[in-house]
Amino acid sequence: MEQIVTSRGLVPQRKYGTNAMFTPPPKLDIEFCVKKVKGIRVSDVLLGNVGGLDEPDAKVFNDQVGQKVSYRLEMLGYESFSVQRNARSRPMGSPVSHARQKVVTQVAEIIQKFINDNMNRQIDGEHLQWRVGGGMVNADRLFITGLMRVSPGSFQPVLEVSYLF
Q1: By CB neighbour count within 10 A (0-12 exposed, 13-18 middle, 19+ buried), where does 100 fall?
Q2: 8-28 residue pLDDT tens
Q3: Which residue has the higher pLDDT, 85 or 164?
Q4: Source organism's superkingdom (predicted)?
């Protein structure tokens, strides 16, 4: 039987640096939309299928951050996960903020690394529904809706998961 996506819901995360949970809907500092609909599937980004991304060439960080940013995941049942990436390139001298398409690609790669690093890790029964890898929470079911700034040089991806019926 073919599975059909009928809806998506926010992936619960702790706010970076606190034990507090995201308060839905979280305030997004940077949004990722496809044809004006919030969210882009992680697996599509990893395959390079970002053709419908709204404003793919828009510079997203401008003067908000330095040369590098940290992306932080705080998934329930897992340890904090942080990866640092360049936020700017230097095409001809002065640094220029990465464009939306480059940033969403970085975020998708980091989410896939989180999944790969944690797919065989034990998770307590209370958070079992958020287990990553395999047929559970994976790149095919996750959507990146945006980034929330959680400290001067850090952003936390805001994710949604598709419910399959």
Answers
A1: buried
A2: 888 989 888 887 887 767 789
A3: 85
A4: Eukaryota
What is the spatial distance between Cα 113 and Cα 103, in angstroms, rounded to a whole number?
15
Cβ(134)–Cβ(119) under 8 Å?
yes
What is d(CA 50, CA 103) in angstroms, rounded to the nearest whole number?
Answer: 12
CA–CA separation, 120 and 100 (whole Å): 32
Q: How far is 9 from 124, CA to CA, in rounded Å?
A: 21
- Stretch 57-82: mean pLDDT: 91
Q: For residues 83-108, give the mean pLDDT.
A: 87
14: its two tokens: 């702790």
The first and second tokens of residue 56, run together, are 């793919």
Quick count: other Cβ atoms within 10 Å of Cβ 139?
19
Question: Residue 23 CB: number of other CB atoms within 10 A?
Answer: 8
Listed residue (13, 52, 21, 37) closest to 159, CA to CA: 13
DSSP percent split of the chain into helix, strand, coil, nearest 5: 20, 35, 45
Is the backbone peptide bond immediately before 91 cis, with ω within 30 degrees of 0?
no
Q: Output the pTM of the full model.
A: 0.90
